[in-house]
Amino acid sequence: MASPFLRTRHTLSSALRPFARNPTPRINHAVPRRPASTASSSSGGSSAKTVAISTALGTAAVLGYYYATDTRASLHKYLVPRVIRVLFPDAEDAHHAGTAALKALYSVGLHPRERVQDGDATGAKPLAVNVFGVELSNPIGISAGLDKDAEIPDPLFALGAGVVEVGGITPLPQEGNPKPRVFRVVSTDGLINRYGLNSKGADAVAAHLRERLRTFARSIGFTEKEMLDGEAGVPVGSLKDGRLLCVQIAKNKKTDEKDVEAVKKDYVTCVNRLAPYADVLVVNVSSPNTPGLRDLQATGPLTALLSAVVEEAQKTKRKVKPRVMVKVSPDEDDDSQMEGVVQAVWMSGVDGVIVGNTTKKRTGLVPKGVRLTSQEQKNIMEDGGYSGPALFNQTLNLVGRYRKMLDSYSLKTEGLGDAFNKNQKVIFATGGITNGDEALKVLNAGASVAMVYTGMVYGGSGTITRIKNEMREKLAIEDKKQ
């Protein structure tokens, strides 16, 4: 059916045809008014249509923005990780692309973020936990490795983490091991990596963290010194209430692990550069990809190293000094090895232990009934550290044992003087944690924080939110039972 505008035009042409033969017709001036009126009506309809379409598109864009940037969106779990694996067959390329994407999206406000606060309708925070005198909004953290050079701590905090660990950072820049050095084992949601502590170096990372601090200070009307003196009322590292930033440090590969003084110098250099911008310093002596690094977990060298780090940390020109933790291997798991670590922790004055790292072991990693592809069978035998859900049981076991040993050693040393800090040592757990039930288990076993790494690689940027929701649901069920 013809539009009103076309029907009107045909009628008008018929009406005017007789006058075309008369050079001086008496034209009824009312005639031209009808098309003008009809055009006006059509124009008004078109304008209304344009407004309607624009409104619909604008609404769709806003809704799309809120959906795509919300960590609860299913696309972050089911779509984005799979697309990344297709676009970037090399796992390290995917890692760098993910970091760059988060950094770029954050800079323009299009990053995924957690929109549901940790508090409930009454203002209570069921997941809150006190760590080092700071009430964390929640006990879920992100382990070092995702953000090696402290490029994206704020986008990671935006995902809902109570703790973010960046690093490991070495005193001098180093390339790490030759590529390829990261391999997927998708059937087990696992990764093999032998990065070898690739790092831009302490000076570069410190410069970046300092600029971050200064930018934040300017935004709230404070100076850098006032921030370091704690006048802003937020932790100096995270720059966020109820959050902590951990900065992991390590020695350079070329530093001889048998030269304890040289090793101490490496770590002390890192502390000197990075301590002002960290809430917690993490001493990495457990990476499996730096030759000889795990040898530093022996009681003698570990005590000397940790004592040097604690002493340097106390010199930090800041009102609240950074805490110090040591990250230990899941492979050194017999009682004598663990007792040696516990002794070094107490003797040095270190504040806590991060239990877990990647494993060099290759037994028990593939669940019963899971069949690996030929490429995965090759990948899983690559040299390097394995991370993934298969590590959870070992992590849980080690957390419980370290908790008992640390507390027992505290009781044994009562009355020996100020060399021992009588406060309970803090434990962070990392290794194989992928859901809320597992997080609650390690927390109940004695950890204060449950940290994820590979779980985010496969679970996407909504992993932290999902784990916390699962924890709240389980706690609510438990409360109803009581």
Automatic annotation (TrEMBL):
Pathway info:
Pyrimidine metabolism; UMP biosynthesis via de novo pathway; orotate from (S)-dihydroorotate (quinone route): step 1/1
Q: Which domain of life is it from?
A: Eukaryota
Q: Which cofactor does it need?
A: FMN
Q: Where in the cell is it found?
A: Membrane
| Span list, region Disordered | 16-47
Name the residue ranges with Low complexity bias: 33-47
Per its record, the protein catalyses: (S)-dihydroorotate + a quinone = orotate + a quinol
Span of domain Dihydroorotate dehydrogenase catalytic:
127-475
**Does the record carry Zinc as a key word?**
no
Q: Which InterPro entries match?
A: Aldolase_TIM, DHO_dehydrogenase, Dihydroorotate_DH_2, Dihydroorotate_DH_cat, Dihydroorotate_DH_CS
Q: Which Enzyme Commission numbers does its entry carry?
A: 1.3.5.2
What keywords are assigned to this protein? Answer: Flavoprotein, FMN, Membrane, Oxidoreductase
**Major subcellular location class:** membrane
Pfam families cross-referenced by the UniProt entry: DHO_dh
What NCBIfam families does this protein's entry cite? pyrD_sub2 (TIGR01036)
What family, per the record? Answer: Belongs to the dihydroorotate dehydrogenase family. Type 2 subfamily.
Q: PANTHER family in the record, alphabetically?
A: DIHYDROOROTATE DEHYDROGENASE (QUINONE), MITOCHONDRIAL, DIHYDROOROTATE DEHYDROGENASE (QUINONE), MITOCHONDRIAL-RELATED
**What name does this protein carry?**
Dihydroorotate dehydrogenase (quinone), mitochondrial
Annotated organism of origin: Podospora comata
